[in-house]
TrEMBL record:
<dbReference type="InterPro" id="IPR018931">
    <property type="entry name" value="DUF2520"/>
</dbReference>
<dbReference type="InterPro" id="IPR037108">
    <property type="entry name" value="TM1727-like_C_sf"/>
</dbReference>
<feature type="domain" description="DUF2520">
    <location>
        <begin position="120"/>
        <end position="244"/>
    </location>
</feature>
<dbReference type="InterPro" id="IPR028939">
    <property type="entry name" value="P5C_Rdtase_cat_N"/>
</dbReference>
<protein>
    <submittedName>
        <fullName>DUF2520 domain-containing protein</fullName>
    </submittedName>
</protein>
<dbReference type="Pfam" id="PF03807">
    <property type="entry name" value="F420_oxidored"/>
</dbReference>
<dbReference type="InterPro" id="IPR036291">
    <property type="entry name" value="NAD(P)-bd_dom_sf"/>
</dbReference>
<feature type="domain" description="Pyrroline-5-carboxylate reductase catalytic N-terminal">
    <location>
        <begin position="3"/>
        <end position="79"/>
    </location>
</feature>
<dbReference type="InterPro" id="IPR008927">
    <property type="entry name" value="6-PGluconate_DH-like_C_sf"/>
</dbReference>
<dbReference type="Pfam" id="PF10728">
    <property type="entry name" value="DUF2520"/>
</dbReference>
Length: 252
């Protein structure tokens, strides 16, 4: 059984805690968080602490904290035996600890939205094979989708994730806002959202592109631009239209 402590109390930390708590192959030793109030939701099932000097020994310390705090944080951890692995998609493998690793779950997390870890890819990296083996065992305890991903690959993967998740979600927000301003239920678009994601998962997204930009339907494009009163929305619409047309060579 692998002994794990999670350092952090945010979205990623919360979901990792829930996943490990359900595994018979993982022993949760401790949850660390600077703010004691944020540790309350973890309940009495696991030890918690808000001071690094109170950390108990574990096989793996998983750092689920802000990217810009990772390197400095690692240097403060006093342990010569534990593997110290961060969960960031954009920060490279640290060189500040004797046993370094990365344990990156590629998913969007919100505390109140349940996720199935069995469907989540876990991207691993380690400073040597022995450490990788431990992280791999830990990962397989909660998901069958485990990948060896280098720091440069992970940085590129994180960028891709921003496009397909964060930027797309912002476009969902724009669509919802436009619906609300015209008293149209956003749920009418739910089936379209689901089908678009399904097709992008089954095929290369480039082969299933549709819409007025692809068809170079200038009449529809002009009407859409007339409807947009938010300057930011207008710029986004124009930029995406231009990008689609440049990709497919459809602009006349």
């Amino acid at each position: 059984m692998i002994k794990v402590s999670i350092l952090g109390s945010g979205n990623v930390a919360t979901h990792l805690y829930r996943a490990f708590a359900e595994s018979n192959e993982v022993q949760l030793v401790q949850i660390y968080g600077r703010n004691p109030k944020k540790l309350i939701p973890f309940g009495d099932d696991v030890s918690t602490c808000s001071r690094l000097e109170d950390l108990k020994e574990a096989d793996v310390f998983l750092l689920a904290i802000k990217d810009d705090a990772i390197e400095e944080f690692i240097q403060k951890i006093k342990s010569s035996n534990a593997i110290i692995a961060h969960t960031s998609g954009s920060i490279p493998l640290s060189q500040s600890a004797q046993k370094n690793g990365v344990f990156y779950p590629l998913q969007t997390f919100s505390k109140d939205t349940p996720v199935d870890f069995k469907s989540i890819p876990l991207c691993l990296e380690a400073s040597d094979k022995e450490i990788y083996s431990v992280l791999e065992k830990l990962a397989l305890a909660i998901s069958p989708k485990v990948f060896s991903i280098s720091s440069p690959q992970r940085k590129s993967l994180h960028l891709s994730a921003v496009f397909v998740c964060n930027f797309v979600n912002h476009l969902y927000h724009i669509g919802e806002d436009l619906c609300a301003k015209n008293e149209v239920p956003f749920e009418i678009l739910h089936a379209l959202i689901t089908e678009t994601a399904r097709k992008a998962s089954l095929h290369s997204p480039k082969t299933v592109q549709t819409g007025p930009a692809l068809r170079n339907d200038q009449q529809s494009i002009a009407k859409h631009l007339e409807l947009l009163t938010n300057e930011n929305y207008t710029e986004i619409y124009k930029l995406l239209t231009q990008s689609i047309q440049a990709t497919y060579g459809t602009k006349l």
